[in-house]
Amino acid sequence: MADDHNTRAADAPDAVLGLDIGGTKLAAGVVGPDGSVHSFLVTPTLVQEGVQAVLTRLFDLGRKAIDESGTDPRRIAATGIGCGGPLDPEAGVLLCPPHLPGWVDVPVTRLAEERYGLPAVLDNDATAAAAGEHRFGAGAGARHMLYLTLSTGVGGGIVIDGRTYRGAAGNGGELGHVTVDRNGRHCRGCGRTGCLEAYVSGTSIAERAREAVAEAEAAGRPTALTGCSPITAADVSREAAAGDPVATQVWVATTQALACGITSLVNLFEPELVVLGGGVTRAGEQLLAPVRRIVREQAMGPAARAVRISVARTGDRVGVVGAAAVAFERVVNGGAA
Ligand SMILES: [Zn+2]
Question: 165 lies in which domain range?
């Protein structure tokens, strides 16, 4: 059922609605053309409730975000939706995202269009985050930019010549699945071995730390990580900074794996900027400084000199800001998808 704001102002819109469908949280917000966030709301996904109930609550949250934004609903131009893949961004269909069991071939943009009476677009959440960082954040003004989010998994997004790259079927840019060790750890995200994600996601850092603690305990070597239950990536960075040898070993392996993956990406794309987002980047320079040093040493000369590595700026609102960025890109700015 369409809401009551089908009559929109003819001049430039004030804002778009951004919706983010995560496995644990849904988020909605109204975002202006300069990236200013006029409203931002979050609620648990409760995925066990099923597609229809979750989407009803998502669209209700979006309606509330419009109400709370103080923006005239007639001046909201579009809805952007970000979600983990696989998905079909042209058709606006979620195919079978693993974080949303039971969501098969869900035509989410059509449902959003019916609910709000606005054009809607769908993109992979990491692609959307890359678009958000490029339009509004650390990547503003960059022509060639890569984005990696180091979170539960490792997502990626690519901007080439100022345009978001999506690949042949709209699911390209999976930078977390570049191989850093062909005979390495199992990757839960894609099933192969030795992917970057298997080393530098928050989940993988914690898992490697648990293994390192078990080894240390078996060898009678004390570690401060023994007191952390469950061990998180934040525990590892904190105890590494405090000089704990086991945490340091895990952290150094993390920065080396990340630098290895980024070096390959820098050689491939010769970007001027690599933006890192996600919870693991809260470690700041403890993560970035060694990665910058190794990439500078190991990437091919011109590419190594061209690249800067920075932390994302859109923060915890990246899902909504990214979804809004693709709505501006694909709807407001003339469908340059
Ligand atoms: Zn993988």
Answer: 138-312
Which DSSP string corresponds to 99-144? TSTT--SB-HHHHHHHHHSS-EEEEEHHHHHHHHHHHHSTTTT-SS
* pLDDT at residue 1, rounded to an integer: 41
Give the pLDDT score at 336.
44
Residues 235 and 308 both lie in one domain: yes
Alpha helices (H) along 270-317: 285-298, 301-306
Q: How far is the CA of 150 from the centre of ligand 1 (A)?
A: 13
Cα-to-centroid distance, 54 and ligand 1 (Å): 28
CA of 177 relative to ligand 1 center, distance in Å: 4
Where are the strands (E) in 168-307, listed by range? 273-277
Q: Domain tally for the chain?
A: 2
Q: Which amino acid is at 2?
A: A
- Say yes or no: 57 and 107 in one domain: yes
Residues 167, 33, single domain; the answer is no
325 and 278 share one domain = no
CA-CA distance, 150 to 153, in Å (whole number)?
6
Q: In this predicted structure, what is the pLDDT of residue 13? A: 74
pLDDT of residue 335: 54
**Span from the CA of 184 to the centroid of ligand 1 (angstroms):** 11
Q: Give me ligand 1 centre to Cα 144, in Å.
A: 24
Q: Write out the residues surrounding ion ligand 1, Cβ under 5 A.
A: 177, 187, 189-190, 195
- List pLDDT tens digits, range 75-103: 999 999 999 999 999 999 999 998 899 99
**Are 197 and 296 in a shared domain?**
yes
Tell whether 149 and 213 lie within a shared domain: yes
Q: Are residues 152 and 245 in the same domain?
A: yes
Task: Find the 288 Cα to ligand 1 centroid distance in Å.
Answer: 22
Give the tens place of pLDDT for each residue, 262-305. Answer: 999 999 999 999 999 999 999 999 999 999 999 999 999 999 99
